[in-house]
């Protein structure tokens, strides 16, 4: 027995700690650790302890292996009859490697059930596996944002029409009230000034009909704004009692946009300026829209300001794209000989442009000859009215031609 103990100690090269008695266990040295009270001593094998980083790496490896196994199981799994009953199954299969139930199929299932369904209940009813639940929840969230689904107070999913809600686009009025133009083509729903304080002209919203107004029109209240249409607004700066706000040029937006005073702001607001405002906080039941000035166009009375306002008010393109500018740089500064073929060279004549100062293109010009006591437009043998071919330098369909 003593020989065996000495052999174990020499192999492990361990020194015995103080107040600990050795215990022989299957060829390894184990020390008994004294415990307080009447609790018997415990034994701890002398093995290297793994670090926290080692444990984390091991756990991550096991988790990745489990996820891979689950995905592999999903790939090999055949879709059930419930999933294949989707009327748009072929369309979804063409778009995605692992097709989920289409939006139309989800709406159809909720319609057939005729009652609100929780997320778990909907996944069980549509045979959604565990690995598909995250993507399926994203699809439900997208439908909810677009007003195709909504949740009740319990968090269950329900169709808007089942909750007597109407989806449509809001049309504002300069006097402050507005209307919801339903997507289904039904009668417009009147929204008073209080309800219009939650949204802006052009927003999409879910509205519940609450009654009939004095003119016999359906009147309603905004339940939820599903999509915001205004992120940038052009307007005039007004300052009253130290409070800065911008009055939109689009009169259908009846709410003024508050601009917080910021000493570090790039643009300092001045009353009468025409500015572009980025809306950083949309209107709600308890607050007005808040914006930040990102561009100053000039004073309201400056010449040509009407054109600048109209371009931005109606979201018309007024800046050349990067591709068009690069294409313009590649054009030669001088006329090539090949370009003169089939054309008459009038560069020696002192042509005068007749386009106005604010014209976007200068392509019309005339030449006058002195004849006797006066001047004559044109010559004896040919016309002296030149029309420039504006599309010559730009290929059809290129960025420059557009």
Question: Brief overview, please?
Answer:
The chain has 402 residues and is an alpha+beta fold. 25% of the residues lie in helices and 26% in strands. Strand 4 and strand 5 form a beta hairpin.
Please give a handful of descriptors for the protein shown:
OB fold (Dihydrolipoamide Acetyltransferase, E2P), 402 residues, five-stranded antiparallel beta sheet, alpha+beta, 25% helix, disordered N terminus
The global form is extended
User: What is the architecture of the largest domain at the second tier of CATH?
Assistant: Beta Barrel
Q: What structural category arises from helix and sheet content? A: alpha+beta
Q: In sequence order, what are the helices and strands, one letter per element? A: HEEEHHHHHHEEEEEHEEEEEEEHHEEEEE
| Strand arrangement across the biggest beta sheet | 8-7-6-9-10
Indicate the radius of gyration in whole angstroms. Answer: 38 Å
Overall tally of structural domains: 5
CATH topology annotation of the largest domain:
OB fold (Dihydrolipoamide Acetyltransferase, E2P)
Our estimate of the beta-strand percent is 25-35%
Low-confidence stretches: 1-15, 23-28, 42-53, 72-76, 379-384
Helix content: 10-25%
Largest sheet: 5 strands, antiparallel
The count of β-strands is: 20
**Average residue-wise pLDDT:** 78
Separation of the first and last Cα atoms: 98 Å
Number of helices: 10
Kindly provide the name of the CATH class of the largest domain.
Mainly Beta
């Amino acid at each position: 027995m003593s020989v065996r103990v000495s052999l174990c100690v020499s192999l492990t090269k361990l020194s015995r700690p103080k107040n600990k008695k050795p215990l022989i266990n299957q060829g390894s040295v184990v020390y008994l650790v004294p415990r307080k009270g009447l609790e018997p001593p415990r034994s701890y094998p002398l093995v290297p302890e793994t670090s926290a980083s080692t444990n984390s790496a091991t756990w991550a490896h096991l988790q990745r292996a489990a996820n891979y196994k689950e995905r592999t199981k999903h790939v090999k799994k055949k879709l059930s009859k419930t999933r294949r009953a989707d009327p748009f199954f072929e369309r979804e299969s063409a778009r995605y490697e692992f097709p989920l139930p289409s939006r139309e199929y989800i709406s159809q299932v909720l319609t057939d059930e005729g009652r609100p369904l929780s997320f778990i209940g909907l996944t069980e009813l549509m045979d959604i596996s565990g690995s598909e639940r995250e993507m399926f929840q994203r699809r439900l969230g997208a439908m909810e944002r677009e007003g195709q689904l909504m949740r009740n107070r319990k968090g269950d999913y329900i169709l808007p029409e089942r909750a007597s809600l109407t989806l449509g686009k809001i049309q504002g009025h300069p006097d402050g009230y507005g209307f919801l133009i339903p997507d289904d083509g039904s009668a417009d729903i009147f929204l008073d000034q209080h309800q219009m304080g939650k949204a802006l002209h052009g927003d999409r919203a879910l509205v519940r009909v609450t009654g009939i107004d004095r003119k016999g029109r359906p009147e309603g209240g905004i339940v939820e704004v599903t999509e915001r249409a205004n992120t940038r607004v052009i307007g005039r700066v007004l300052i009253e009692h130290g409070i800065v706000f911008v009055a939109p040029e689009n009169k259908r937006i009846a709410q003024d946009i508050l601009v917080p005073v910021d000493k570090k702001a790039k643009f300092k607001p001045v009353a009468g300026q025409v500015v572009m405002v980025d809306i950083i906080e949309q209107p709600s039941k308890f607050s007005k829209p808040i914006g930040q000035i990102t561009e100053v166009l000039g004073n309201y009375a400056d010449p040509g300001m009407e054109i600048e306002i109209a371009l931005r008010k109606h979201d018309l393109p007024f800046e050349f794209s990067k591709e068009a500018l690069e294409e313009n740089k590649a054009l030669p500064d001088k006329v090539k000989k090949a370009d003169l073929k089939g054309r008459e060279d009038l560069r020696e004549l002192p042509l005068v442009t007749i386009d106005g100062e604010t014209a976007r293109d200068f392509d019309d010009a005339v030449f006058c000859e002195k004849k006797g006591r006066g001047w004559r437009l044109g010559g004896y043998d040919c016309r002296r009215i030149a029309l420039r071919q504006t599309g010559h330098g730009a290929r059809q369909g290129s960025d420059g031609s557009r």
